[in-house]
Please model this.
Amino acid sequence: MQDLSGLSADLLVLLALSVLLFVLGLTGGRKFFVPFLVGLYVASVVTSMLPTLRTFLLRFGTDLPAQTPAAIFLLALAFTTWLLAGSAVTAVFRFSGRGVGILWQVAAASILGAGLFGVLFIPTLPRGTLTPSAPVAQWLLADPLPFLWALAPVVFFAILRVNED
Model:
């Protein structure tokens, strides 16, 4: 699926998410980013448990709709982000620097957050709903990149924390 700019829809969604995260990061800083990234990991874990729930429900003749993993992922992400925002968990991590110095941190966290969202959310979509574009398949979904995208935000915030001390 192409639009007027020549970019695929999935890539445009990830770019828009990155810009949104950048703006929210400028306004909310660590009070938004840490809960959002933790929410992505929690949503991934919750979604990975759905096959167990599906097996349980099949015993009773009930099945989950194909959209359930994507919906559960988004709900778990929203709930976890809301739950952790402003809590003591965010005090563990701090952005260092002031003014222009913080922009690169917010930009990097935005890109890492959007990439991690893509890596964790795209597999929850029902098969055939979305065929990832070549750039998304190459830069997000090709082995071993999902693992690296999952690890990168943790390493990034650990490096920021070490440099701050």
Summary: The chain has one domain: 9-164.
